[in-house]
Structures are given as structure tokens and as C-alpha cells.
Amino acid sequence: MSSDMKILVVGSGGREHALVWKIAHDSCSPKLYCAPGNAGTSQLAENIDIKAEDLDGLLSWAKENRPDLTVVGPEIPLCAGLVDLFEAEGLKVFGPRKAAARMEGSKAFAKDIMNAAGVPTGRSCSFTDPDEAIAYANELGAPVVIKADGLAAGKGVIICNTDEEAEQAIRQTMVDKAFGAAGDNLLVEEFLVGEEASILALVDGAHVVMLASSQDHKRALDGDQGLNTGGMGAYSPAPVVQEDMWPFIREKVFGATLEELKKRGITYKGVLYAGLMMTAHGAKVLEFNCRFGDPETQAVLPRIASDLVPALQACADGTLTEELISWRKEPCVCVVMASGGYPGSYEKGKVIAGLEEADAIDDVVVFHAGTDSSNGDVVTSGGRVLGVTALGDDLHAAVDKTYKAIEEIDFDGAHYRKDIAAKALKSSRSSKIEGV
Ligand code: AMP
Ligand code: GLY
Questions:
Q1: What domains are defined for the chain?
Q2: 306 closest CA partner among 286, 321, 292, 285
Q3: Ligand 2 touching residue 216 (CB < 6 A)
């Protein structure tokens, strides 16, 4: 059944391909647009040549084309107020308004909310003066974490193992402006020890539906070595989030945060992403993001058995219920194939072979992240190029299928981690999706 419904997805990465893919399989069969999209989204949606940061361009396209729903992927347009602009024109959007997106846009604001709401998180203080920041870092004692307040494309967090490193990081951020204006204000935070997990929750202003847990792999190399990246792979569920932790996360992380925002007159709608550290003293929040995670989304969405669009619409309308989302039991694994050199500099335009062969394997989807079409070929156009994703009867099977699919794919310089989900395979813990 095809409908007249029009949906615009904003963004161009693996997360947006996963959103487009999931929505394209919904029973409403909407007409899909993706701005600007990539070579993967172009197979399921009409790519519109407008960048995600071009708020005016997106607004004028939307005023003309009147999408029934717009789903915003990246944080930059959310923090810049795309939702506010669209809503002022009577356009329905999935995502938080500017005031709510500050949960990601300002780490100091997010901390202030967490502290006021009693959300478990590391001790911290925010500063505009480097000397005061250094004094506080010394008081906490190394290791400490220095975080630029504003958006820094995932680069504004520095883990310092000595007091000298902390001083250097504070000066680089505040004085040398290594992250531009994002570092005018910074946070000095206690270093937390544990395993990380991501919980994405759908929120409609009042109700919260937590999605299945997942775990990202941020470092470039196996064994969590090498430089930080945008994320080299993810799997879902993450057994480190044990069954008995869910009520605590629902109430003390999401419930308390949304309550505090409401007290300040801020309604949160869209996805609220909690980056958690599972410490010996329980789950603590490392960060909130105002959007779907990348690559967590690629590992979580294929596990959703129900349609996605009704849940996204319900978030915008304030009618979200648990029943709107149901789950497949199979775990899912996403391994990112990156360009040679990433996360440092890398070349673009490498022809990618074997995509169809990989996609043809049962329960495998190859999500495109940094790809483009050129003379009938799919070529690399970014650091993270593909998110090769598979569901399996168990995590072993999902991992095996993913790496089998990767063997089909080839481009000059490709590199990827060989140990995605290894932590979960080693553990005997059980994980469960709440309510399933
Ligand atoms: P964030 O953007 O705040 O999530 O930080 C990026 C990464 O830095 C996280 O995924 C963690 O690996 C690490 N990190 C951030 N804050 C802390 C902390 N307080 N203690 C230990 N590691 C941290
Ligand atoms: N996977 C980390 C993020 O989306 O910020």
C-alpha cells in the first residue's frame, strides 16, 4: 500500500540512511526525501541538495513541499533551532526545539539540569576562567576530564591522566581556542571508571519510551586503542545494562531530567540520548545528546519490529505510548568501514566494490555513511564510509554475518575494527529490553 504521506529526513550519515531504510519499510510507504542524503539514501528516497546546516534552505524547501513529517538527524540544525522554524510554519517535526536541544548544545547546561534533578553523574564544575578551572582540576586530582561546553563535533572531551595534562588541556581549550567558541566555557569533571552504554529514549513532552540498549566503540583501533572517532561500530542490546537497572534509568535519568526541564518551562520532544557509564556505584550519565546516536541507530532500528513513523509522529503530537514500539529478539551488530587515515586526514573518491553481494546476505543491511555516486559507481566521500549491519539468532551469529558481509566489500584503504561486540561476547550477563 502506498500513501500520499511525505517524509523528509535531514542529514547525510549512516544514522540517516538507517532512518530512511526503516521508514521506507513502514506500512504507510511514504514518499521519502533526504537532505542532503548519500548514495545509500538515494536508493530509497529522493535526495535533496540542501545541507543539514542550511536552515533557510530547508525551510524554504519545506514551505514549498509541505512534508507531513520531518525527522532531523544531526545536532547542529537542532541546536540552531530548525524545529522552532518549522513549527512556526505549521510543519510537524520529530526533534527537540532549540531550548531543549541545549541538553547537547551546552554541557554546562546539561550538568546544571542533572545536578538540580539529582541525576547520577560525575562531580564537576563549569568555568569561564582558566586559572579557576586549573585550581578545581588540581582539587579533583588526576585523572580528570576536560570538556568544552559547546558543540565540538565529538572532539571537545579530553581525558587527562596527570595534573599537567589537565592544565595543558584547559589552556588549549580556553586560551588557544582549540575548539573555537565551544571552549569559552568548559567543564572539569571527575573521571568515571566502568563500561559505557547508550540508551536512546523517545520523548513526547511527557511520556518516555526507552529503546533497546546499545554500545558504541569510539576508539579507532581494536582493544579500544587509537584516537577517538565518531564511532567505529555498535551492537544492541548491551548486556552491561542489566535487567534490574532499567527502572532506575527510567526514573532517575530520564524521568528526573524531563521533570527538571519542565520546571524551567522547557518541553522536550524527540530523542533524548543518555550516554551512561556503568560504574561500581551504578549507572552515571556521561552526556546527553539531543538526537539519535551514530552508529547506535544502525544497530537499534533493525531490531524494531513495529512501524517507526507512528511513534515519531506521536512524539511530535504528544501521544506516545509503549505499545507503539515492539522488538525483535535478535541482536544486531554494526561495523563501520572507514577511509584509510580516518580519523586523521583521508582521501575521497575511492570506488566501493561488493555492496550488492554484501546486501544479498540474509539479514544484512549495508548502511551508507560517507558515500556518493559518481559515473555509475558508489565512491567514498567521508571518513566513516559504511555501517555494515546484521541481525543474528544470537550475538555470535550477528557478529559472524557482519564480518562475512564485510569480506564482500572492498575499497582502497578501507579499515575497520575486528572486535565489535567482543566485550558482550566475553560477558555472561543477560540483557533484556524493558517490557519484552
Ligand atoms: P562525551 O562526549 O561527554 O560522552 O565524552 C566522550 C567520551 O569521553 C565518552 O564516551 C567517554 O568515553 C569519555 N568520557 C567522558 N566523560 C568521562 C568521564 N567523566 N569519565 C571517564 N570517561 C569520560
Ligand atoms: N555514538 C556517539 C554519538 O552519536 O554521539
A1: 7-97 (3.40.50.20), 129-184 (3.30.1490.20)
A2: 321
A3: yes
